[in-house]
Amino acid sequence: MEKRILFLNGPNLNLLGERQKDVYGEVTLDDVEQRCRVLADDLGLTVRFEQTNYEGAMIELIHEARTYAHGIIINPGGYSHTSVAILDALNAFIGTVLEVHVSNIHKRQAFRHKSFVSLRADGVMAGFGTDGYELALRRMASVLL
Fold it and tell me: Which of 35, 39, 76, 84 is in the most buried spot, having the most CB atoms within 10 Å?
């Protein structure tokens, strides 16, 4: 059976590779998507990539994922630390949820140390740079396949 994964990226991740390169590096979100698509093919997974700067759109994408996805790999960006609504949407999702952060949120400002999404996530990748996406995809494959 085909296993489908939603990659969901939140606010400002469309600027990956352009902003705060000292924190987030030079790899773009398009680069991440290309690398993950190749890996997903190798792992036998089907992936969909979405990015939005809007909280409501993220919630709608999570709701939609309930109808087709076996797992969600989410980088909620700044919404990690503020959005109970995204947590509630993820709590309504039955499959596996993995949280990704490019930077190590625990070495940054104190307000970044708490993630509401982590309360639902089955695993968290933080501080591995953009490699965290591929690590999360490998973990998702080991859980689902």
Answer: 76
